[in-house]
Structure formats: structure tokens, C-alpha cells
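The record is passed on directly below:
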Amino acid sequence: TAICNPPCQQGGKCVSPNVCECPVEAQGNACQQMLSLEAPDMSTFTTALYNIRRDDDKELYKYSTDAFEQNGTFFGEVWSKEKDYNYFNIELEGLFGEPQVEDFPSYVGNFSFGVVSATVNLLLTKTPRQDGDPTVTALDESYNCSNKDYSSTAVSINYPVTGVLKCSITNPEFSTLINHGDNFTVTATLKSGGFRDLINRNDDSYHSRQYYEGLTTSKTLLFQFDFRKPYHCKQNGTCADLPLEIANDVTKGMLQFRWSGWKDDLSYVYRYTWEVHKLEPDRTSDQNLVEPEPMRPINHTEILAEYYADGSFISYTPPEPGVYSLILEVADKANNSVFARQIFIFDPESNVSINVDTKMVISSANPRTDYLWQNNIQKENSTGAPVVVTWKNHFENRMHKENKFLNKVNTYPQAVLETGYSSRPTRVVKSVAQEFDDKNSLRTIDKVQNNNGIVQFNVAFKIDNEGGISIQIPPDDNEFLEITDPLLDHHSIIATRKDGDTMHIWVKARDIMGNENMDDMILHFDSSPPTVNNVTLDRNQKNGTFPFSSRINVDAFDEHSGIHKVAWRVIASNDSILHTGETLILEEKNCTNSSVMDCSCTPMGMCYKRNNSFQFNNCFLAIDKTNISNEHLVLELDVYNRAMLFDTFEQQNFNVFSDTGVTNIQIVARTSTTIGLTWDIEPSCYMYEVTGMTLVYRSSNGQSKSVTIPLEFDSYTIHGLESGSNYTIEIFSLYDSGRSERYVISAKTETDDGAIPIALVAGASGSAMVVLVVILVVVIILMRTGRMNEAKQKAKKRLTQYIVRPITTYNMRFNRRTGVYSGSLDDDIYALGNIILENDETYLVSFDDVALQEKIKIGHFADIYTAKFENKTVVAKLLKSGYSEQDSVVMRAKINFFAQEQLEHENVLAFLGAVLNHPQFGAYLLLEYCEEGSLLRWLKKHRGKVNEDLIEKMCNMCFGIAKGMAYLESEDVVHKRLGARNIFLMSDLEPKVAGFGPTPQLQENEDPNSTGKERIPVKWTAIECLVDPENATSASDVWSFGILIWEMFSIGDEPYPGIRNKQVVSKVKGGYRMKRPEYCPES
């Protein structure tokens, strides 16, 4: 038997010399130590570090951690980027269950088991200053829960705690310097144990106390401090990766972006967060783009670093077109963050448009040619002025322009957090460093140089000597020259050219999205004036255009550009300009170089007559009656080619006027005592000054008498003359300031040979009585019907009907008033088919009172010009060049219609007057000028810009149109052609109904280009009117009004989309109706 010395205790067994085999509840060489069979449970162990302001106990920030898993995550380690702490709290909770103790030997008296020790150790270690040095311990403190400050339950080996032990350790004066890389370790240890008291079995007295050596439970919490942000490998030159890269930062489709190369040496990169902001112009005058709400992105996505492979692309599609910023946040475990930003444009909708309100022009060309001709050439040595093409405000990307897509992007607005420290009240928590902002992509933070949203212009040109016929196809892309500065809105072209050449110029505009649009212009060259061979003057032509006409004959030609017009000035002796005028020389379509000698053609293929004549109204030159004998006029005549170069001709002694009022005096009857005279009253340039006529007859013996004759008389019988005597008879007109030239005639009375037979006297008396009775009856009828004065007025009107208003001369050295005739004497009325046009002076206008300005529209029947009349802008509707007699009839019918109807309403286009007898244009209308043009044009201009305000404006327009149409109905006027094309808008968008009045309908076999007729607007016309236009009533106008409303709220779309005109009738009769337009209100 083995012997152990000392002997084995606690029931141990000596298994070999001095070796005891101890039971599970004992340990030691001789099993002298009693063991607790269970370790205590640690149910709670948390530590929190605080920064609490001392003056008001406000918690500024807190970092805490727990030794136990929560939702599967272990929080025993925590990283912090804060270094200032002045308070900590540790919560510890242990549990030791009631021990399951078997029966003790009889020598064991009292016993107890539980937690006998609870301690917390704080250890702060610092990274050595140099590599290789040992770790520095800056703090090593232990806290014992037996301290009553930490636990209300006393705990010791003699007082084991069974059940729950709670310990709360707080230090409100914690003050320890924390540095980057420090580790703050908190370790909690619970130890179990107990004791048993031994008794003397002999007398049951206390013998001794034996202690159980318990088991321990320990957990550790670790605070690690990282005060440095992640960095990118590019910063230290170790890589070429990009911090944030957008593969397509200007895109019409899905965005593709990625990042790589981010590092953090201590706590490592933990997560990535990318977010998207839509940029908006700020409210400053610069209107730079900004993130309006930096902390509220439209998209926010977080990715843990362990789940992102560096350089892998991520896709994203924004919700609408715009300029956006993509922000990437790179954060380590301590939540140190660094941000990178990229700017991108998403725009699948916009395009490059051409602004119809501004023109692309050749600014080096002559503006008087509407910039179609340039008056200089360039030789092969590049001497001569360049061709300068200008496109200011002509191209635009309206979306980019109005929404400032290409403006500068401001620095990302820093997001700050209040720290609570007076010395450092705020701290930046979100900002983009300059090195990580977008500076190298297509759309960077810098302003993109642009011109109305256009970033690039390209120019190309071709030249020929065939009027541009051979250079109509645009060049290839590689033939275009790029304009390097997009802010330039012009370009100078250096190219060899000669007179008669034509240059075709193309300008291409491109936006940042790659959208393109192109416009082109034709330019012709002529640097030489026309050749004027001869100018002749035929004075005082009979049966001319005017009562007093002269004809100017011009023989001129221009081989490069053709003859455009002849302009003249008549200059008085005092160098004042009496009158100016001009005549356009029209192209002769049946004229070729080989057909007749009187023909000259240009390289453009346009031919003109060399010999042209025009009538001149002598009365334009009327001067004061008293100065006629001393006045010497000079005619200066300028012959212009189409390049507006001219040669001047001068005609001296241009005295062509006349003041004769009475002509063609004839003797129609003579007796022994009477002489009967008749005469013609010729219109006179001075007729408005005539106060009467005087007849003077003088006998051969010198006796004379004078008679005053009323203006309306064209015959007179002189009575009381001597038989067989010679008389000299003078007739002249009386003026306020004198009299006209005398018209003199000689006559002799019959010789009285004896008495007249009674029968002859009776017969003559009887005939005279019959005549007197007839005259008396006519006079009585006229007097009783009140037409005597009317007959007298009409007789006077024949003499005065062509006297027009005083002429307002334009571009003269002075203005003067003179009465003239402006047309040939004709009947009181004009027959226009079945329409009678009356001479009503309330609307007649002299063409000299109207100054035509700019042609604004070209039509099949007429051209529309702006004009000046009575110092305001009006519209003149002129028949096209080469108009037919039928066109003239239609125009006069329109004039008669407006003159008779006298329509006046705020929503009906106003008729202002008419010119009846322009020598070149014939009759034409003067109408109210609407600044915004047609409603159809306005609708198409506002496509893509529909909002509530625009819809409200259109509703107001509908109301105005309805009022105008209601007025036409009240005047028994049926429109027949109501549509957006025939509604015109004032500057305040007040609508004016137009396009009604007499217009013949175009037949199927007629050419609209050669007639003054119009096609029936099928898609706007009621069905019954398509069958027979005579069925048109105000009810059919209501149908057209409904179509017009559809046209408006579809923003200018054509009605019945996808349906041809020929299909409309069958479709509608079959029940087809168009859907309510997208923007039409439901009520």
C-alpha cells in the first residue's frame, strides 16, 4: 500500500507514494483545497465612455459596447474616432445558482457556496513611438465590487453571493489622454467559491473552516481608437486607380460607376455608401448648381467592404433628366469617413432646336439684300474681305439652357455637427475634399463653356458659279471645320470667289449629349454695279396710268445678279426732295438669253428684261402755283442690281406738270345771237384749289364780258351776241392764289338774213315746249324724291373721286401736303363678278400713305408684309407677283366684304382700310397686326413646356375665340375655315379670329399654286359642308370650333392623327371620334 505524506484529505486516495487522487471537489497535493463544482454566470457586462459637458451635464457623445451577442452580432470590440472622454460607466451582473449539494458527512456543520469575488480591470495601452519598442501601459486600474460604492451586496469568501450579483462602476472624473492607435481594455472577472465548517464529532464543537477554491468567469471589452480617415492609394503614388469613376458621365441611358484603391491601415475600410443628389441652380445671380439638400439624397445605398470587389461596376438610372452628383462615402470601423464626388448628366429627352425668332445671317453681306448678297470678292491670294456667318441665339438646347445644365457646380455644402465645446462649437461630418471632387471627366464641377446649351459649332461651305444648284448636298462630317470656342457665335470664311459665284454655308450645332442640328444659308457675290446703257423720258403721256403721266424708260442689265429695282428722287431748285419712289423689276420666267435680245440672265438662272418702263405721276411734283414759272426740277434715278449696288442717272429740267383744268373746247351751236360751247374737264394737279371757272368773251370792237360758271358745268350758251360778229372766247380756272392758263377759241355768230317763217317758229317753239316739259317733269321727280342733290353730288364726285388724302412721304428731306390724282377716272362702281364694290372714302387709302417693311409670310394667293400706316405697325396683304385677273377680283371682293360688313369686335381681326390702285401690286388689304403670329405657331413653339399656367392661358384663348365667333354669328357671318392657323394672337395673347370672307374653293383638278382659291380644310370642316359647302352655317362653325379646341389642347397636333383626308368622312359617319387630348381639362 502506497503511503502519502502528508496524507490525502477530502476523501482523496493515495495511489502511489506521495501522490493523491483527489475527488472532483478537491485539489492540491494532498487534496487539501475544496473546489466549487460550478463557475458563476456573467449575464451582463457593458462599458460606456462618455463626453458630458460639466456645466449642464449634457451628453455630447457616447461610445459603448457589450460583451454579449445581440441579434447574432458580437459587440465586444468597438472602434472610436473620438478622443475626449470624461466619464465612464461599467455595468456587471453575475449569477450563481443554488448549489445542488449531496449529503455532507456528519463532521460538516455550516457551509455556503456562491460568488466570492467580482473585479473589473481597466488597461490603457499605447502604440510605441517607434517600431520595435514595447507597448506602453498608460493606465492599469482595478475595481472591486465588494466596495459598497459599486454594489449593495457584500461579497467575499466568507460571504458568497448566491443568486444575482449586480455591480455598477462609475467614474465621473475620468481623465485620460487618448491617442490614435490606443487600446482601452476592460476585463470583468467573477469567481465562485465557498466554505464549510468542520465540527468535533465528540462534542459537536466548532473545529475549523475549510474554503472551497472556486472557478472563474472572465470577459473582456476592447475600445480601439482610430483618428485617421481612410486614404486612396493614389495619394501616396502607389496606384493609378480612380477614387470614383463614372464610365458614362453624360448619358441618355443607365449610369455605370465604380471605385477602387481605398485603404485604411488601422481599422481598415469597413463600408461604402453611395448616394445621388439632383442639382439645382442656386438663388444667387451666378445660378451655380448646388445640392439643395445635402443630407437628403434621392438615393442612398450602403455596401459593406467585404461584399464589394474593387473595380466592379454598379448600375443606376435616375428618375428624370437633370444634372446629378454621385457621392461616395468611404468609412473605416471607427466611422472615419472620406467623400468623393462625380458629376453626371442624365438626359434622354432634349435636343438641339433652331430658334425661329432669330435668324442665321451672313453678317458680312449687304443687309439691304436680306443678307443674300455680298458686295466684295476674294482673290486667290486671299485679298479681300472674308465671309462672316453669324448664328447668334439661333441654335439652342432649351432644356440645358433654361435649367442651367452646364453651369458651374459649387463646392459640396459641408454638413456640420455641434460639438458643444465653446472652443470648437462645430465639427464637419460631411464634405468633399478638393482632391476627390470631379475635375477630369466630361462633365466636371467647372462650367462647361456653351452658347445657349450648345458646346460645339462646326462650319462647312461649298462654292459654285451655277447659283448653288451643284452644291445642295451637305458636306461629309470630316469636311466641317470645328469652331474651337463655343462661345463664338460667328465665323469668318476665307475663300477665293468671284462675281456671280454662290456659296452654300452649313452650320452644325452639337450639345454635350451629342445631339446635333444643322442650318444652312445661300450667299451670292456681286461687287460691281449694274450697267445702265440709256435712260429716256416720255413726258405727259396720254392714256397713262395717271391723269398726268410721264414714262421713264431704262435700258440696263447686270450679268452677275440681275436688275432688282429702279429708285428715283425729284429734287427742286432749293435742293429739297419733292418725291421719291421705286419700281421693282420682276423676273421674266419666259426670258432666256437666246430667246430675245431684250433679255439678260445671271448664273443663278434668273432672267430679266433689259428694257423696262414705268409710269410717273406728274402730280407728285406739284408745287405752289405761283412758283411754276421759276421752278426747275431734277430727276435722279438709281438703277439697283440684286446685290443693291447701283448706278445713278440724272435728268435736268424735269418740268412735266400742268395746271390746265379745261380742255377740248368746242362750238356745238351758233345763232345770230348765241354761241353754244362744250368742253372737257381734265383732272388737274391743282384741282383741289379750284374755286370756280370764268368765261370771258370779247367782240372785235373791244367790248368784253365775263361769266362765272359752276364747277360741275361742262357746257354753256352765250346769249345776247351781235349777228355776224367775231368773238374771242377765253375759259380759265380760278385758284385761291390766281388762275390757270387760258384756253382761247374764236367764233362768229350767224348772220341775221330776215324773219323766220311762222311755221318754223311754231315748230321750234313746239319742240322747245316738249323739251321744257320733259325737263320740268324730270326736275319735279328728282326734287320730290330728294335725288336732285344726289345727282348733283354724283356729278361733282366724278370730278373729285380720285382725289386722295394728303401724302405722307417717308425718307424725305421734308414732308409736304399736295392733292393729286392716284388713278384713272372710272365708273362710280366696279363689277367684281357678282360682287359690287362701292367707292367708299372711309376706307380708301393712298398707297403713298403706306410704307411696306418686311415680308413675314408667303402664301399661294397673297404675301403678307408688315407696314407702317398712320405711325403704327399694320399688316398688308398683297397679291403675289404675277397675279391673275381672277386673283384681283378675289382681292377686291375681300375688300368689299370687309368694307360693307364693318365688323368691330375685340376678338375679330380688324380691317383698317384698303389700297385700290397700286401701280405694281394692285388692290391690297390693311389689317390689324398681331405680334405673336398665328395660334398654330404659338402652340408648336410651346410644345414640351406645358404647365398649369399654359393650360389656363389656352382656356382664356378659347373664351376669347368663342366671343369672336359669337359676334360673327350675330352679324350673319359664317366663317367656314376656323382653325388654329386662322387665329392670331396679340402680345397679351388676346385671340383674333381671322381667315373668313369670300374665298373661292379649289376644285380637284386645279393647281393651288396658280389660283387664288383655297383647299377645303377637310379635318376642320363639318361633314355636311364637305358634301356641299353651301350647307355651311354657324352650326358647322361650332363643329370647327370643337376641332380647334382639340387642336389647342393637343398643343398643335393635326386632327384625326394617322387618318388621311379621304378617310375622314367615312370614319366620322361610322361613329369615330377623337380621344380627349392629353392636356384638355375634364371640365
Remarks:
- The radius of gyration is 56 Å.
- The longest strand covers residues 205-225.
- DSSP finds nine helices and 66 strands in the chain.
